[in-house]
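Saturday, quiet lab. Running sequence design on the structure tokens for the scaffold JK sent over.
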């Protein structure tokens, strides 16, 4: 009589490595296997040589691994370095908002077309409830904070440079070059809405380019591109 199918499978597993996993943490991550924001469990395992399914001899530790709660795929802990889709959109929104504020702070908020394009840009980035008043009061708060006014010769202060680096640097490695260039171009178009770049606006946009890991030449080229009517 032929052995039943189940029996032959069991035979193959007489001897093997059995890993028992224990969870040491959890959270949300972007799963590269099933492609989306998922819950994960961070787990370490104990490997044992198992005979007939009974774990016997210790064979060291496994992991730590990150296990997707949806598809149960295992990844190295570096899978947690990638932002979730939700976190990524928030970073992108904040980046555009900060760039818009920095350009406004350097060029002033007196021009209506500048204020309008700034609001439009920030809304398009996902902050739907952004208004001119909101942007203007943030600039005023910033000016009060740094003890400078937007009408000063060099209104753009160190505080703003730090803000730009904090908002853009963590985002840059996760953006394709076109995405990084697009953020710079959006800032450049706000700056150009009331005429050619001022020295302060150039400085801000150069800082934006550097924080986005764009080359100096690329930044200059993009600033010129933005200047051509489209
Ligand atoms: Zn998954």
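Result came back. Writing it out in full:
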């Amino acid at each position: 009589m032929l052995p039943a199918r189940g029996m032959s499978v069991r035979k193959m597993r007489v001897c093997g490595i059995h890993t028992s996993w224990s969870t040491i943490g959890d959270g949300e991550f972007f799963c590269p296997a099933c492609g989306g924001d998922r819950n994960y469990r961070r787990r370490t395992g104990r490997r044992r040589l198992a005979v007939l399914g009974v774990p016997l001899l210790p064979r060291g530790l496994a992991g730590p691994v990150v296990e997707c709660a949806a598809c149960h795929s295992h990844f190295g802990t570096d899978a947690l370095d990638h932002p979730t889709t939700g976190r990524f959109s928030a970073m992108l929104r904040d980046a555009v908002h900060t760039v818009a504020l920095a350009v406004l702070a350097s060029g002033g908020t007196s021009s209506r077309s500048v204020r309008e394009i700034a609001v439009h840009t920030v809304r398009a980035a996902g902050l739907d409830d952004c208004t001119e008043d909101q942007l203007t009061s943030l600039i005023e708060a910033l000016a009060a904070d740094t003890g400078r006014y937007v009408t000063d010769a060099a209104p753009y202060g160190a505080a703003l440079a730090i803000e730009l680096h904090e908002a853009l640097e963590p985002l840059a490695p996760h953006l394709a070059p076109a995405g990084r260039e697009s953020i710079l171009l959006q800032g450049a178009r706000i700056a150009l809405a009331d005429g050619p770049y001022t020295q302060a606006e150039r400085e801000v946009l150069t800082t934006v380019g550097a924080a986005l890991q764009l080359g100096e030449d690329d930044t200059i080229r993009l600033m010129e591109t933005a200047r051509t009517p489209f």
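Notes for JK: The longest helix spans residues 85-107. The chain has two domains: 12-81, 85-225. Ask whether to fix the surface positions before the next round.
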